[in-house]
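Protocol step 4 of 6: record predicted structures for both targets in the notebook before any analysis. Target 1:
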Amino acid sequence: MTHHKSNRAVEGDPEHGHSRGMPRRVDEDELQARTERDRREVGLPGGPTEDPDAEYRQEREEIDREVGTGEMPSGRVTRRERDPFPPSHYER
């Protein structure tokens, strides 16, 4: 009695069902459809934003606002003027 399966039982029929790897060119339409389906399954919006520049501008405005209010350090302090280590505790 053997405890190993034959190659045919493990791999299936060698003439059918085995591909040679990724195709040379990806089917862009199928890839886009799969991406949208996967995004819906995990609860993300269906597709990319229409205007990536608008998204960049929005993020940039948020950063500028945080720097202006002091929520985010501006980086205007030179390396020599900064503390050598991060603080050991933070304010709550």
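Target 2:
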Amino acid sequence: MKKFSLLLSVVFAIIGCNCQKKIVEEPKKETTSNVKEYNLPKIEYVANTRGFYEKITIENQSVWVTNNREDKTNGEETKIPDDVNKELSSYLNSVNLDKLATYKDPTQKRFYDGAAIANLKIISNGKEYQTVDFDHGNPPLEIQNLVNKITSFGTKR
């Protein structure tokens, strides 16, 4: 009986070690790098004047557009296609978020109601980055491609 108990203990030890070995080997599976590459942070674009309001929010490969200041739901959700998400990601990667607040606005039409006041906010890894106010339709050159792509989701008049 002692020999049987010893043999049974050895078998369980071998099986237990083999199971742990499989668990350690499983994370070595190849993961795709594309998933993280196109994961965008939360982006909020707001343009407004006394008679105009547009808010575009992008998060988790979805976009919400609203023209109602009182709308707490941010409008209706629309999914962003993968190719557009990839394009947005490439524009965003070309922007230095730490310098976002220092980018100069090329025009000041908003000072005399010649353009809506626009602002871009990016929330990445729990940190908020925000531009200075600029004219809607005429963003700073450093973020022009990104802002133009974001505003392309806006409502068409």
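Step 5 preliminary note on target 2. The CA atoms of residues 42 and 154 lie 16 Å apart. The helical segments are 2-25, 34-37, 82-93, 144-151.
Proceed to step 6 after PI sign-off.
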